[in-house]
TrEMBL record:
Record protein name field: ABC transporter
Keyword Cytoplasm carried by entry: no
CDD domains xrefs: ABC_DR_subfamily_A
Chaperone is among the record's keywords: no
Residue ranges constituting the ABC transporter domain according to the UniProt record: 4-229
Pfam name, any one: ABC_tran
InterPro entries cross-referenced by the UniProt entry: AAA+_ATPase (IPR003593), ABC_transporter-like_ATP-bd (IPR003439), ABC_transporter-like_CS (IPR017871), DrrA1/2-like_C (IPR025302), P-loop_NTPase (IPR027417)
Lineage: Archaea, Methanobacteriati, Methanobacteriota, Stenosarchaea group, Halobacteria
Family, per entry: Belongs to the ABC transporter superfamily.
Length: 304
């Protein structure tokens, strides 16, 4: 059964369309990265899952439970780190986790939870004195209590330092290993690449792409960069390379003693053959994948 089903969901706020006919299925056991720039509509969709927001059209379901008409059942399957989370200033971190354990009737040691999210040492401090990152870790810890089937994390890495980001990744991997589905939003591409099975790109309320990272790279096509170390290459040869089908640009980089070519994956071999036939001595070559940043720009600038 699908963990998340979103069918034709739209949500408008006055003249702003926060979600525009979004269709999405996330399979059980998947780690799904939900990407989009600020204001794209990510939190709005997560709020639909939680029944904080009612869609104007369409429906969303969690493990088959409608997020609006069966919100109690839907929510009982989820552990959530929401966008606008709050902590109780006067309660300690340990008390927060104890509260979550009681509410979910879970059987876990509070200190084990706090340890997992890296705030064991602050267990007996009041959460009012926590930094933003610590409060976020605490709410994540509470979301993990009870081993939810679906973990929904809204920008879980915002406010964390690189060490904290690494810890979140570890938690996500561990959750996947125990069989949970993870859905998390981010506007930072690098942070999803390491852990996601698939990503969806949301732009201006529209889901403009859903694929594996590799699939997205392939469909962006022409952004593979070939770096070819050569003895020398005359301008005329580079012009010939540039005229090949699938080649975007070819230019010399004398400092690095190489030529650089942006082309589609299919054109790589033709480039090397053309250089070889022109008598250019190829000492070495390697390809550089399109960066996630480039992919993101490609998708979000092309969308209307
Ligand atoms: N309660 C609301 N009332 C009016 N407009 C809203 C409301 N909630 C969201 N919006 C608007 O809907 C759009 C989508 O917002 P949303 O918070 O879902 O985006 P987001 O992708 O989560 O962005 P961020 O990463 O900045 O949180 C934005 O233009 C936002 O201003």
């Amino acid at each position: 059964m699908a963990a998340i089903t979103v069918e034709n969901v739209s949500k408008r706020y006055g003249t702003v369309t926060a979600l525009d006919r979004v269709d999405l299925t996330v399979d059980e056991g998947e780690v799904f990265g939900f990407l989009g720039p600020n204001g794209a509509g990510k939190s709005t969709l997560i709020n639909v899952f939680l029944d904080f927001v009612q869609p104007d059209d369409g429906r969303a379901a969690i493990f088959g439970h409608d997020c609006q008409s069966e919100s109690v059942e839907a929510k009982s399957r989820m552990g959530v780190l929401p966008d606008g989370y709050t902590v109780y200033d006067r309660l300690t971190g340990r008390q927060h986790v104890e509260y979550a354990i009681e509410a979910k009737e879970a059987d876990v040691e509070p200190m084990a939870v706090l340890d997992r999210v890296g705030i064991r040492d602050a267990a007996d401090q009041r959460a009012g004195g926590y930094s933003k990152g610590m409060a976020q870790r605490l709410v994540l810890g509470m979301a993990l209590v009870g081993e939810p089937d679906l973990l929904v994390l809204d920008e879980p890495t915002s406010g964390l330092d690189p060490h904290g980001i690494k810890q979140i990744r570890t938690v996500i991997r561990e959750e996947r290993e125990r069989g949970a589905t993870v859905f998390f939003s981010s506007h930072i591409l690098e942070q999803v690449e390491a852990v996601c099975d698939r990503v969806g790109i949301l732009y201006d309320g529209e889901l403009v792409a859903t694929d594996t990272i590799e699939g997205l790279r392939q469909s962006v096509g022409g952004t593979t960069k070939l770096l070819i170390t050569v003895d020398r290459a005359e301008a005329g040869v580079l012009e010939r390379v540039e005229s090949l089908a699938g080649v975007e640009r070819a230019w010399p980089n004398p400092e690095a003693n190489r030529v650089e070519v942006t082309c589609s994956n299919d054109a790589k071999m033709d480039v090397l053959i053309t250089l070889n036939e022109a008598g250019v001595d190829i000492e070495n070559f390697r390809t550089e994948e399109a960066s996630l940043e480039e992919m993101f720009v490609e998708y979000t600038s092309g969308a209307s």
